[in-house]
Amino acid sequence: MKKLALLLILAVTIIGCSLGDDDGSSNIGYELAVINDIEVPEYFEVNETYEIDVTFTLPSACHKQLTPRSLDVRKGGSGPEERSNIYIGAVTSYNTSQDVCVEEDSSVVLERTESFSLNITENEEYTFYLWVGQNTAGEPEWRTVSVPVGAPEESN
What we know:
By secondary structure, the chain is mainly β. It contains two helices and eight strands. Strand 7 and strand 8 (140-147) form a beta hairpin.
């Protein structure tokens, strides 16, 4: 009798457990948002830290900004020249099982602004590569913004 009760409890436990992903996490897709603008100073000073504002547009009203941050900011490499190349993308998420997206919803603000801190360690011009989409071959396209290091020379 004890074995039957144990088997019954075991069977109920196994049947009661879901083997599928009901939390919706498997229905999440990710997509990059177009970077519209970056606010940078006229020039940088070495050993200073700057707060850089980046504005991007969500692909649709169904896309959400990842929390707490959507910006993906990466240096181009580990060498001095590569460290002054900064690549910026904005990663968004959306529900892949949602069939209808209401982009005309005026209450949804698609343009977002986030910021990141950048410590200037190199005495070379910094170039920001802003992701703006893909070409017909599926390769990323970037808009570049360059900022010199050190105050510009004044000419008489």
